[in-house]
């Protein structure tokens, strides 16, 4: 038996079910799914699929595309989350989120995509005062560390793939890591009425209250830094330390008329291109967030964007992030604060991080080497980030 998300595959019986309900799948699509599942999370080439699914036949690559599309449609099954089938450009396809189960439903599942340390996460749900359902995850052990949600989060996908995995697993090794998907993204409700800084602060407050922790260090990444600052100023008694990485105090739409026009144009394009199977549009964002990514890492980031939110919500989210302004409250931050920013950050300019740190009394600013908005696993910035976080939290 192989489980991924809410799906259960019995390769021997060639049966796929979702929460106990049989999923209808064509013969060729089932063949492809079984091949992907047997690869245990590794990439399966198109040549391999052609050889195994169409043995002895001469067929075009387009046949694979047709049945991959049918498989993705079956796995989405009308749900908000996207397919588990990932296209790795130039290499083939991969099935993510895999678990195996012995004896039907006995024993603990083995997660192929999990970190070798075997850290596991538990996903739970809570609701805001206006009824928005939020997904949050708890992983690791030790003193708590809360990570504020930011643009492009998905609790399950981040845990399994090389875009965020090294970050969240690294933090969970020494802490009880608490993170969540903000409204409009990931595993939380997508169809929401309000997207704003105030709403995102409310999401954070709802999650930490649901978890039941009174005092904790708070980590913000990218626009999550502004959310963290706003929460820390409002609830100084609950935040022991503030850690800010790759952030800004003033949203892009408020920096200049040119930036406002650019954001508006991007939002229009997002409504038309974000959810497309063709990742060309999303690659524009990937090139800014991770210019140093390998082709495989870029492919995962492209898929992360598609899985994280809908085209409409992506456009609204971008617009709301552009209106962020916490410049007036920087001076009200009272807890120890660590600010880190990559010198060559292609998404959020280095000067914005340094300016944010300068406005916070007593903040320590650490410049990191690199051009990626989110550092990759083997960058020197990755090791430096974890070293600085642990040193800071011991103060």
SSE topology sketch:
Layout: E1 2-4, E2 7-10, E3 15-18, E4 21-22, H1 27-38, H2 46-53, H3 61-76, E5 85-88, E6 92-95, E7 98-102, E8 106-111, E9 121-127, E10 133-140, E11 144-147, H4 155-160, H5 165-172, E12 176-181, H6 197-211, E13 216-221, H7 224-234, E14 239-245, H8 257-273, H9 280-289, H10 295-308, H11 311-322, E15 337-342, H12 350-359, E16 364-368, H13 380-393
Parallel strand pairs: 11-12, 11-13, 13-14, 14-15, 15-16
Antiparallel strand pairs: 1-2, 1-7, 2-3, 3-4, 5-6, 7-8, 9-10, 10-12
Q: What descriptive keywords fit this protein?
A:
single chain; 8-stranded mixed β-sheet; globular; alpha/beta; 395 residues; 2 domains; Rossmann fold; 39% helix; 6-stranded antiparallel β-sheet; Arc Repressor Mutant, subunit A
Name the CATH superfamily classification of the largest domain. Answer: Alpha/Beta hydrolase fold, catalytic domain
Q: What fold name goes in the CATH topology slot of the largest domain? A: Rossmann fold
Mean pLDDT: 87
Low-confidence stretches: 77-82, 102-117
Task: Give the number of domains.
Answer: 2
- Biggest β-sheet, characterized? 8 strands, mixed
Could you state the order of secondary-structure elements as H and E? EEEEHHHEEEEEEEHHEHEHEHHHHEHEH
Which class best fits the helix and strand makeup? alpha/beta
Could you tell me the strand content as a percent range? 15-25%
The overall strand count is 16
Radius of gyration: 21 Å
CATH level-1 class of the largest domain: Alpha Beta
Distance between the termini: 48 Å
Oligomeric state of the chains in view: single chain
* CATH architecture descriptor of the largest domain: 3-Layer(aba) Sandwich
Number of helices: 13
**Envelope shape:** globular
Helix content: 25-40%
Strand line-up in the sheet with most strands: 9-10-12-11-13-14-15-16
């Amino acid at each position: 038996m192989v489980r991924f998300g809410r799906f259960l595959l019995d390769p021997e019986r060639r049966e796929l079910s979702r929460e106990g309900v049989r999923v209808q799948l064509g013969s060729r699509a089932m063949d492809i799914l079984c091949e992907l599942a047997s690869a245990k999370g590794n990439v399966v080439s198109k040549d391999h699929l052609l050889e195994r699914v169409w043995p002895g036949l001469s067929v075009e690559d387009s046949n694979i595309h047709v049945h991959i599309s049918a498989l993705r449609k079956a796995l989405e099954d009308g749900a908000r989350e996207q397919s588990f089938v990932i296209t790795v450009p130039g290499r083939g396809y991969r099935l993510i989120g895999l678990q195996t189960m012995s004896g039907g439903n006995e024993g603990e599942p083995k997660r192929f995509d999990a970190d070798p340390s075997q850290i596991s996460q538990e996903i739970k749900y809570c609701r805001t005062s206006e009824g928005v359902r939020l997904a949050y995850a708890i992983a690791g052990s030790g003193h708590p560390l809360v990570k504020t949600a930011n643009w492009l989060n998905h609790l399950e996908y981040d845990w399994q793939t090389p875009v965020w995995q090294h970050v969240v697993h690294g933090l969970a090794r020494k802490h009880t890591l608490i993170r969540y998907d903000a409204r409009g993204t990931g595993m939380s409700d997508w169809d929401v009425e309000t997207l704003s800084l105030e709403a995102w602060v409310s999401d954070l407050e709802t999650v930490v209250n649901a978890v039941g922790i009174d005092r904790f260090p708070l980590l913000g990444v990218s626009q999550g830094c502004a959310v963290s600052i706003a929460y820390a100023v409002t609830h100084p008694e609950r935040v022991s330390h503030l850690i800010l990485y790759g952030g800004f105090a003033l949203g892009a739409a408020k920096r200049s008329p040119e930036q406002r026009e650019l954001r508006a144009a991007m939002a229009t394009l997002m409504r038309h291109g974000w959810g497309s199977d063709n990742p060309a549009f999303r690659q524009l964002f990937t090139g800014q967030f991770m210019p140093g990514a390998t082709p495989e890492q870029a492919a995962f980031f492209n898929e992360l964007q598609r899985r994280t939110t809908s085209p409409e919500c992506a456009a609204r989210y971008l617009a709301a992030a552009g209106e962020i302004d916490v410049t007036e409250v920087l001076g009200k931050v009272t807890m120890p604060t660590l600010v880190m920013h990559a010198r060559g950050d292609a998404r959020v300019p280095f000067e914005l991080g340094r300016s944010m740190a300068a406005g916070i009394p007593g903040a320590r600013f650490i410049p990191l080497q690199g051009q990626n908005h989110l550092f990759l696993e083997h960058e020197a910035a990755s090791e430096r980030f974890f070293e600085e976080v642990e040193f800071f939290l011991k103060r």
